[in-house]
Amino acid sequence: MTILGLMQENELMISSLIRYAAEYHGHMEIVTRTVEGPIHRYNYREAEKRSKQLANALIDKFGLKQGDRVGTLAWTTYRHFELFYGVSGLGAVLHTTNPRLFDEQITYIINHAEDRVLFIDLDFVPLVEKLLPELGGVEKFIILTDRAHMPETNLPDVICYEELLAGETDEFEWPIFDEKSASSLCYTSGTTGNPKGVLYSHRSTVIHALAAAQNSAYGLSMYDVIMPIAPMYHANAWGLPYVAAMLGAKLVLPGPKMDGENIQGLIENEGITFSCAVPTVFSMLFQYLEDSGKKVDSLKRTMIGGSAVPKAMKEKFLKTYGVSVLQLWGMTETSPLGVVASSTPEVDNLPADQREEILDKQGRVQYGLEIKVLDEMGEPIPRDGVAFGDLWVRGPWVTASYFRNEGGSVLDKNGWFPTGDVVTIDQYGYMKITDRSKDVIKSGGEWISSIDIENLAVGHPKVLQAGVVGVYHPKWEERPILVIKPAPGQSLTQGEVLTFLEGKIAKWWMPDAVFIVDEMPLTATGKIKKTTLREKYKDCLTG
Ligand code: ADP
Fold first, then answer.
1. Residue 117: what pLDDT?
2. Domains and CATH numbers, the chain
């Protein structure tokens, strides 16, 4: 007979994070580069108060109820941070929209989510004005600024955020409800079909934050100064608004500008020790550091994910700037923490080159997430770092299905989620992505990793971005081609690129053609848009 434990079963509430930070780290700063321009500073105590004022306003002025969706089109700022806690804290659902999506995608997801109110940063007012005729379901538009900066706009009955808060008290008891209740909603870019909504819960968010806060995951503590450059609309800035509050660490929010000057200035002035972003952002930072001769001395670690980390980027961070790079693999569907390339005592004891090769991979799982890799027959692949197969994941912060059951049931019968990534896994448990399954290049029946070729190509000092796709070839079925965007002020030839790759990859992996372009097509999350490249170059080998 089972005998139940006699321990308390407190619901895991997102509000508990800000409550804790306000009570025990109340003086700790939250610093923002605002959309209006200047730096804004306050602390967790004030942030909680304003989140409570916001919760009161949402209930009193808009009649918002638990489960109602609140949309945002906003950068990474303290006002967005208040929405993270105020909206989820009262039991409503925060829907962060990626403003870089196409117009039709933005209207689609705001309508699909049924956002009742929409909070908008100044920069996005013209966008919302344009989309207004399509946004019939949105009852209120609130602009995230003060009276002095309110723009002229034809949005109906538009509300100023600071005025909305000003009339409210900060007396508010965070409600306790079922931890499985929805807390926030984030759509994935949906390279095929419509974007799909990942609906996080209070429980999944708090457990994810606990996992991410482990030393072997993001490796943070309250002594860190954390700056998520990964935006709040991209998998909740990788969970950092929650993790930082859980730790009581100083948090710096970079606002709308991802350029090297803003990022370097914040690092230096605020003493940032930890930051995270997709690789493209750090390429821009390097460029600025080289041109300006400025430093990032306080920075100790960067976490890079979303696309594979080029080896050249990792080396440059370490050798030139003394910053270690931690690679993260994850998806919107995994909140996003999947695997992290942190070391283990076993790996530390290996010869240096072997250790390096392992830590260049995407990484290993933390407690709480399970992964399995299956071959084409559905059999587990050997953990030898060579065999590859489809990656499946399972765990309390992984999607069970998409919002409003878009795409039907996604899990297999044992609850595993298919990631769409093709990977190897080695004897130490480190996973390496060879490709997204839809990007895999199959040439003469053999597989070629587009990611490996791209990573080598960006190691060339004159190359800024490199994209490899498979295109039709009459004999080999598919062959890789390489598209290069040179670094600013640089030009290079096809021949230079090919000579650089020679000897570094197998002969039959060598691209059949190299194209040098001025603009690389990027997705809304800053990744190279392979679908566009495939379409553009589909006939290039058949003429
Ligand atoms: P989107 O497609 O909207 O960018 P995600 O951010 O959820 O959505 O993308 C997840 C995908 O990004 C993963 O399935 C994987 O293909 C890719 N990815 C994420 N991190 C890495 C990494 N470190 N290395 C290589 N690919 C990565």
1. 98
2. 15-320 (3.40.50.12780), 441-536 (3.30.300.30)
